Amino acid sequence: MCYRMNADGHRTKTERLEATLRKLSDEADFEVVVETCYAAAVHRIALACDRRTRQHHDTHKGLAKYLDDRDLTDLAALFRQLELLRTSRYYGAQSDGKSAKEARRILAEIQAKLH
Predict the structure, then answer these.
(1) pTM score, two decimals?
(2) Distances (CA, A) of 78 to 20, 85, 96
């Protein structure tokens, strides 16, 4: 059975993830910050999609294409930036906090698209 999260579920999950982000240090916890921003972005994008199109995609796999196909190219571009950051910097183990700061910036831009 496949469970589809509703808008309230996505909102609650995002709030929990963002509460976790507030506890983390960009330099000391950069890997966790990037991963948590990525997870929160998936949920924030689901909320934005619900508002704009009354439907959303529940996973990160294929999300950028899903957004492009629905003419949500602004969200697709931001999500691609976060995906690139996640794979290139997170797995590249750059520990100076820059990748965490950039992930937080992208998440904030996605959040701004909700309004």
Answers:
(1) 0.82
(2) 21, 11, 22
